[in-house]
Amino acid sequence: MFDELILDKMNEECGVFGVYNHPGTPQFIYYGLHALQHRGQESAGIVTSNRQSFTFHRGMGLVTEVFQTKELEQLRGTMGIGHVRYSTTGASSLQNAQPLVFNYHDGQLAIATNGNLVNATQIRRQLERQGSIFQTTSDTEVIAHLIARSMYDNIEDAVKEALGMIKGAYALLIMTNDKLIAALDPNGLRPLVLGKIEEGYVLSSETCSFDAIGAEYIRDIDPGEMLIFDREGMTSKRFTLQTRKAICSFEYIYFARPDSDINGINVHLARKRLGKRLAEEHPVEADVVTGVPDSSISAAIGYAEATGIPYELGLIKNRYVGRTFIQPSQELRDKGVKMKLSAVRKVVENKRVVMIDDSIVRGTTSGRIVRMLREAGAKEVHVRISSPPVKNPCFYGIDTSSREELIAATKNVEEVRQYIGADSLAFLSIEGMLDAIGRERLDSSHGYCLACFNSEYPTEVYDGLLIGQNREMIQVGEE
Amino acid sequence: MFDELILDKMNEECGVFGVYNHPGTPQFIYYGLHALQHRGQESAGIVTSNRQSFTFHRGMGLVTEVFQTKELEQLRGTMGIGHVRYSTTGASSLQNAQPLVFNYHDGQLAIATNGNLVNATQIRRQLERQGSIFQTTSDTEVIAHLIARSMYDNIEDAVKEALGMIKGAYALLIMTNDKLIAALDPNGLRPLVLGKIEEGYVLSSETCSFDAIGAEYIRDIDPGEMLIFDREGMTSKRFTLQTRKAICSFEYIYFARPDSDINGINVHLARKRLGKRLAEEHPVEADVVTGVPDSSISAAIGYAEATGIPYELGLIKNRYVGRTFIQPSQELRDKGVKMKLSAVRKVVENKRVVMIDDSIVRGTTSGRIVRMLREAGAKEVHVRISSPPVKNPCFYGIDTSSREELIAATKNVEEVRQYIGADSLAFLSIEGMLDAIGRERLDSSHGYCLACFNSEYPTEVYDGLLIGQNREMIQVGEE
Amino acid sequence: MFDELILDKMNEECGVFGVYNHPGTPQFIYYGLHALQHRGQESAGIVTSNRQSFTFHRGMGLVTEVFQTKELEQLRGTMGIGHVRYSTTGASSLQNAQPLVFNYHDGQLAIATNGNLVNATQIRRQLERQGSIFQTTSDTEVIAHLIARSMYDNIEDAVKEALGMIKGAYALLIMTNDKLIAALDPNGLRPLVLGKIEEGYVLSSETCSFDAIGAEYIRDIDPGEMLIFDREGMTSKRFTLQTRKAICSFEYIYFARPDSDINGINVHLARKRLGKRLAEEHPVEADVVTGVPDSSISAAIGYAEATGIPYELGLIKNRYVGRTFIQPSQELRDKGVKMKLSAVRKVVENKRVVMIDDSIVRGTTSGRIVRMLREAGAKEVHVRISSPPVKNPCFYGIDTSSREELIAATKNVEEVRQYIGADSLAFLSIEGMLDAIGRERLDSSHGYCLACFNSEYPTEVYDGLLIGQNREMIQVGEE
Amino acid sequence: MFDELILDKMNEECGVFGVYNHPGTPQFIYYGLHALQHRGQESAGIVTSNRQSFTFHRGMGLVTEVFQTKELEQLRGTMGIGHVRYSTTGASSLQNAQPLVFNYHDGQLAIATNGNLVNATQIRRQLERQGSIFQTTSDTEVIAHLIARSMYDNIEDAVKEALGMIKGAYALLIMTNDKLIAALDPNGLRPLVLGKIEEGYVLSSETCSFDAIGAEYIRDIDPGEMLIFDREGMTSKRFTLQTRKAICSFEYIYFARPDSDINGINVHLARKRLGKRLAEEHPVEADVVTGVPDSSISAAIGYAEATGIPYELGLIKNRYVGRTFIQPSQELRDKGVKMKLSAVRKVVENKRVVMIDDSIVRGTTSGRIVRMLREAGAKEVHVRISSPPVKNPCFYGIDTSSREELIAATKNVEEVRQYIGADSLAFLSIEGMLDAIGRERLDSSHGYCLACFNSEYPTEVYDGLLIGQNREMIQVGEE
């Protein structure tokens, strides 16, 4: 990954986007994926169907790099699915790019997923023992095998059977030459929304992509829901009744784009409320409030508004850091060469600065930013985090480091403060976070996954011990 | 150019960066240019000297695209100059990439410039009549010819003679295998700053690049000043005494990065003051203030702070629009496919919105954004512009459209309001702008160029009538 | 495919190359595949193992295009297999590039094959019915599934079991992290040779690759033989006793490089003998003998030597036709724009020319060359073909057109002569061909496949009727 | 340069191709340059004119690499010139790619040349003293300056004046928006031919390119001739009467394509006669004759025909060596890894081999091939060279090494034989060579340059002492 800031963040794995029944399918998926680019920059792919056969293209890089005019024009069809991927493992390779496309007994199938299964390794081992071969390391291939091995003849029942076997977090799009199917895990851990554009339907990880193509938002997919799109139109089914909503709270805190709404709650406004609540819980005497761009801007505005301390651009991000950026050597970094963030001297000089960040994962970047502010003349640096301390790893597709690397797992707040060199440090409480995002909606059918904060995992965690045991083949020299 | 927003803005031509006497020269120029990337994304180039001969590389695209590890590692030397370019004309081509390197009677020479000469066409014609050949269409080649044709043996006098002949706006870096020379036009129309890094000197269009490499800012170059760096160290000379400071006010309004200081004034803080003054001059009853990202954010914060109306992220920019982005067809745009900006429904719905923009050039983008806000549910849209109306073309290297395309040249404020469909529209006054940026510094030796607002051009405008008469060769298939 | 001449030829599918137990494995495979490049130019791939895990890279294009220094340096290990591919179908795509790498119950496996199965479609359908998914359209994936589904724990027995199920032509290299296995089909339809380099073993489609890396030729693999390389050294086993040698006669006629030996017979010398025998069977009064470059040169030399008619370069091939060559439009071709072959006027003008070609498939190219010679002034053009008429399609991996397109399937020799516009035309007899290549070796264990000439297929042809029924997904925008 | 064989050869600098008055101009130049590709593989360029303005494209690599469909389609016009370049110096760079295009007092001008001036450095110095700047290191830029500085208003006289000042070898194409001008140096050292295609004219370095596009050969340009093409049609002028034909004999020996005719003499047939004469002068008892591919094949055929010893393919060249080929390390080469040439064991084993090569320059490659043949089992290796010993450097655009590197300059034949390890070695005599190429044509107006054999340079050699003193800028990271 090319971004020093992101390196020290929790990172999303993927974004998915699908269109059913519209002649503009390839273009819509292109622009839709482009709007989801923040969810994954490693690879991009689109599969479309003209109801006879698939055309597809996948590649490493941004949507705009993978798809040039030629590739986009060659995609044909009125239905399709697309995917952007962020790699959580070292196994960054074209092989793992999605959507996965394959032939099976009933024809052609394409799958794109966002999320992570907690029993994928188990199922994979079992499938291998039964003679399956795996050409990728992604969970998506596991789901493909389960569908292909189902005894059911029709795709809906086969998918349903497969979903009955997998556990974990997943927002799933499946396409044959007849049907498009969307499904969400029983806890609704990952976001998935439904929209409409003229006579067609659209499905996406986030509503911001609907705005990008002029589609109308209809509703969020429910946990355990399966939507089938075919010549009959749209049908909703439940593949399980044992559901308990637990959407990833980090979607609000960090992942999603501020202009998206999740479960009807706008992300920017939720973040601003997180900042306000943070101000209430942890006020401080100071001269300026600044946010770490881009994800902490909303919270910083909220904190400033609540405290009356002026909000300033005290930290500026270089917009042109791409995948080919040459990282400065450690020697150069020690001498002050910055990678992508600068402190604005005239803004922070001789000032008491409140620095708002959305989260602290390993703490290294936070420490670096605090030092940067001090070098730019800040008299005091008070760090305020708009989420609770992250103490537990995520098994649902978020790339947290292992538990030992989570600074809050082994250090208390005061120790973390010393580590990052701040004058003061405070985290938002879990209660405060829930209030700010929207507690009123918290009922039996609607809750948040808080596992990384409080270790209450909404599912069993089968593969936990097995992680990292996958036999990895290293693909070199992409492209 | 890849950016719909930028298309309707005034655009800077270039950024320059130089290092003298440091072993890290190639790296510093790389990171320095990267920090100046906002000043030009079309081409990038670096020339270095090991005091014996030059090594150089130029290419189309971003600094990070043009320079990969291999190219950077092959650059050798302890002094060098670099350039990023934004094309103001259709003649976007590798040929015109800078720095220009050539051999002349006294050895090797490299030149990089930011700016535009007002008598380049005249001089070019004259040089051609004397037998010169021109391989590019850039003014820089004109300067190169003048230096090479000088009767003076030493480079300093030759440069001085050349500068005596050219008129217009220029921040200039010249390198031989012995010396580095920096020069600024007699009006100081373009920014150029001097810094220090260990035993070496650095020169740049903006201070933000000094922060990026850990260099220390020393001072801005004076109008009519020429700095010579050689084994003797640094020497300052005046190549003319007829100077009158008139720095481009748009550097503060739009071009420069918010973390840069120009003449000691921080750009973000200046913009925030522009927003505050705008609030004083043109208040309005409203529910939210939002800025058009990225350049209008600071002014929007200032406006919000002054009025007490909450500042919100009502408009979101997609960060991943690159040069290979496929523009949606007009048909798709009509259907709502957006290119890079989205309005945030939950923020603006049923709200009276103040939309802050830094300038209106042709008015088409402003109109589109107003419409976008209305479609997202805004009840009222009040547009406030943090600069005066742009009524005259720029001849100093800024890519304004021709006078007929400048909406404020032919329409009054009410007509412009109707054109963009706003509920109200107001521009900052020239007086207000000067106060906000920093009137106290306005004296005989320190002023602003206001020509695009009030047609008081600080120089004669010789080539005005000739523009567009250049004989252009079209280079196809760059890369 | 980029070659007008090749378009009208029978075309090989692939070349394979393997190394066991040598630190220079990646380099040897690179240079070895490069020597096999004539067997396939569509894609190239290398997998190596350091006995713990695989590293691999595959891509579209020539070996030298797919592997740059970086990719080659990243390959690690002391054993490995490589592949070059020529696409016989429209499904030219990275997906189908080999070697195939995957995980199965026993770890990692890589496979590379040259050849074609005649019951692949049958087995594929059966595997799909059992729940297998297919991500490529290549027969290699079928073999991979069979190995993975074997009940045997050890790879040797699993491979043996798989080979017992497949029928057709195959030279096969399989690698795990412990072993390298080579196998040849029971008819030995495809060539596969064993060599030695220092302490290591090498396997290849052709001996010319041994010369390229300085390896020593040991022997040809036997039909139905399986060679296992592991820490114990090399072991030879028979996976079937029902073998009957029937090597593709076109390897001698056209496919193989002239410096290769197949079954101890040098290809250039065999071709020269084909030319001599052709002269005996079909002499003609003429002034010059010329061969269609490159594959017919040897036969032309032989014909000239036998008849005493001088051998000349009457046809010249442009060496620089690559994949990016822009084909002339039909209009330009009609006007005389040539793609890669020219007749040499001074050589053929007013001469009676014997034009030697190795085969006629569709006849279009032959006709074009005859016309070219006449336009260059040839008085007479006598076409002599150094192989018998091709009347039947190949099911063993050779890209002949369908039967209807084979000109000799529907036209007699006189009709073909008229079609190509020659003054006379003659083909070598089957008897003559066998004599020339080496009849003395023709015994029960050593024969040639003559199916395309006489329809005596050495295996059953199960999939014959099914060909073309595969469900193809179209991958667009390679690379 | 990518070719080990070529490294040890004399190498041509360039090929030129021009079209006047044909709508197919861009395509014809593309296919024409493609046919001249053997004359230069480093860079390619095309400039076309629609009589109003130029469109052009230049790039590094083969014609087919530099020009893709897009670039070719963007070229517009009914006249144009093109160029392929082989770099004789280290200064391989895009900067030096031709045609050179520029603006001067009279409009636009494009120039492409093949050859080398012997007083370019002198003129360059003088021009620099007069204030000219040089952006390339090519002689072509010198000619451009001379034309631009001419006092004459019309291009013909300006060109004539420039040609009066330059000395050396040149085949020259010049284009304005009105005219196309071709010129050949007073000695006709480089080839240049005129052809016709429908209503248009074509000009080329070799006739093989006329065959490629279906053009009709008219005649060779005369030494000191200038052809002007404009709306009046074609006009021939002499820019000097002091001409003395001395065409480079190496065009026949090595450079030109065998299907080209130079001065009416076919190159293949000339080479075959060189081989025959070589057989007469230096017969030897042997079993096989083999030629070093590709340039020595014709001579080898001639030698075989004259002696009755069978001609065989004893050496095979890999056709797929391109610019991205990874050279084997010295260690690998010592172990036997070959770059592009293989000896055919079955052909040479236990045989007395006559190895025909067209020339020996440094002797290293010859030695390597002799060794290769011995390792493949040759009993004796008799080397016969179809040209006289090269003892003197070329100043006319041929990349011979400096005199010290020319093995025949410092060693006698016996010493060379020992150096290359041959059993015997013999060179063709100068007399024999002249007879073979065509002595009957040798008269006052028609002769050969033999300078590299006998040091009789047809011109003065002004720059001889200055070579290598150019101030070189190193351009890195092409592409």
From TrEMBL, chains A, B, C, D:
It comes from the Bacteria. Pfam families: GATase_7. One of its GO terms (molecular function) is 4 iron, 4 sulfur cluster binding. Residues 14-232 form the Glutamine amidotransferase type-2 domain. PROSITE patterns: GATASE_TYPE_2. The active site is at C14 (nucleophile). Pathway: Purine metabolism; IMP biosynthesis via de novo pathway; N(1)-(5-phospho-D-ribosyl)glycinamide from 5-phospho-alpha-D-ribose 1-diphosphate: step 1/2. PANTHER family: AMIDOPHOSPHORIBOSYLTRANSFERASE. This is Amidophosphoribosyltransferase. The lineage of its organism: Bacteria, Bacillati, Bacillota, Bacilli, Bacillales.
